[in-house]
Sequence to fold (78 residues):
Amino acid sequence: MTFEIRLKAGFFKTQVCYLKVGSGQIILIPQEHDGNDRVVINGDELQSVNIMSRNLTYAELEIVTTTNIYVGSLAAET
Fold:
């Protein structure tokens, strides 16, 4: 399953990414990428995934791993 998300990449900067959910891992792939900048989160690194929605058109996403926290918003399912 693949989702398009806007991942926070700085204080006022977001990066459009594809979030792929597969067997035992989550993969974050920037929309404009050179092939080496994707992030692979294996199941043993994952601590939590939170989706917070205030309405039907917007949802925030938080992925917590043992080393990082990824925050963004869901754009649309692709």
